[in-house]
Amino acid sequence: MANINLRPWREELRAEKQKQFVVMILGAAIIAAGLVFLWKTDMDSRIAYQQSRNAYIETATKKLDEQIREIESLKRKRDELLARMQVIQDLQGTRPVIVRVFDELVRTLPDGLFYTDLKKTEDKLSIVGMAESNSRISTLMRQFEESDWFADPSLSNVAEADNRRAGYSQFNLSVQQKTPEPEAEDK
After folding, report:
1. Domain 90-180, CATH 3.30.360.10 — does that match?
2. Looking at the whole model, is its pTM more than 0.85?
3. CA neighbours within 13 Å on the CB side: how many for 46?
């Protein structure tokens, strides 16, 4: 007798292949979902790591900004202290000069003449005084010319004094103060 297969083998084969296809699709979907999950987890961890680095950099930047402000403040204080030290050194350096200037003012003062007002502006000395005669004023100007500490005397005004100083002339004189050579200071 002949073997005749009456089973629906084609439908079974098709159903089997369809099951395999569905299993393969589900397997591929599960693998793809797993890969997507791993990729997302990796990206999240990288983002978290970068955010922590950014936070560290921001914290370090804030600390550096504070240090920069502190350094600038210290530099300002240092500059102020240096300026104060310079002023003190200038004052210490010019202290003997003032004494010498007053000493020279007394040395150049002829008899019959006295000062009523002295004003110093930078290197210019303005003098207001009283003199018995105009010749005493010219003697004062000659002595200023000969002095190592003064130069360029300039007489701006000579007037008769008020009643309290009868016989005296009031004068306004300006003279440049100069710094003498070192050997002139030793005299």
Report:
1. no
2. no
3. 6
